[in-house]
Amino acid sequence: MSPWHQFLSAQGAEVQDGNIRFPNAVQAEDSIITDLSHYGLLSLEGEDVVTFLQGQVTNDVKKLDGTSSHYSGYCSPKGRLLTLFFAFASNGKLYLQFDRGLVEAIAKRLRMYVLRSKVVVTDLSDETVRIGVAGNKTEAALSTFFKAIPAAEYQLVQENNISLIRLPGGLPRYEIIVPAQQATELWTALSQHLTPANKADWDWREIQAGIPEIVAATQEAFVPQMVNLDLLNGINFKKGCYTGQEIVARTHYLGKVKRRTHLAHISSDTTPAAGDDILDASGTAAGQVVRSAPNPNGGQDILAELRLESVEAGTLSWQDKPLTITPLPYALEK
Fold first, then answer.
1. Phi/psi of residue 163, each to 5°?
2. 0.85 exceeded by the pTM?
3. Are strands 195-197 and 32-35 parallel, antiparallel or unpaired?
4. Domains contained in the chain, CATH given
5. 286-333 pLDDT tens trace
6. S-S: 45 plus which of 82, 93, 170, 256, CB 3.0-4.6 Å?
7. Residue 195: which of 129, 133, 130 has the closest Cα?
8. In which element (H, E) is residue 239 found?
């Protein structure tokens, strides 16, 4: 067990196979603090790093100047998402955060394409701590530790080697990237004001913000627009070529997107798994689950990639449980 996980265990968390679970029940209105060890983190550095990554991902790496962050897709040559990065820059390095279960394979793939470029890819998943905070009390809690709080979505501020990023969505949400040796002090200070919460609590708030993710079960299942990456400003259509760019651009320029990711509720005690089929009235697959988490008030909330014609027809279900489509915090047209 890492020193960080030993610390969380001393705070009352159960730690099993790297998974963190606090025993307290968290309500929808609670302001929370969450360990984000389920995300992995890669750093890329070297004099060719911007040019290299610019040819790999859907967004414009040149805009990461140490004061901002963004989402970006990493596609196969067929334009299908291999993963979804949350990217930012700090101290001359570029950082890519995504599902930890994909880190080893994605790092290997990036290194394979480095070739003669002067770029070093390093897995920092265990050398840094990522902490999420969310809720109406978070700004006041953060102000006890930070002098400056980012006001705009995706804005990044740095203080004492700690990065603080404002995340998108209607609810105030932030991520903190902190060296492991400073994390215990930070957690101790913030947890005096915020309720310790679990991965599922954080996932539910991500789902409410309409943020998709790619995991092993959904790799190469989606073109970026199917999970609304363009609506999250995660695709730059003017930046030039990158792997899969032809397919992504064709989807954008040559017709209306026919599949989109929707927010939905299911009255069930069982949480759907990413990749599970969503069926229409005839029992035909109309799409699949992108992300899911229990709703604190009961049932399950999901992000589901669906054919738009199936949504218009209505009567969608997961394992015979009907879906109730609810509004996303952003429009499905751009």
1. -100, 135
2. yes
3. parallel
4. 1-211 (3.30.1360.120), 216-326 (2.40.30.160)
5. 999 999 999 999 999 999 999 999 999 989 999 999 999 999 999 997
6. 93
7. 133
8. none
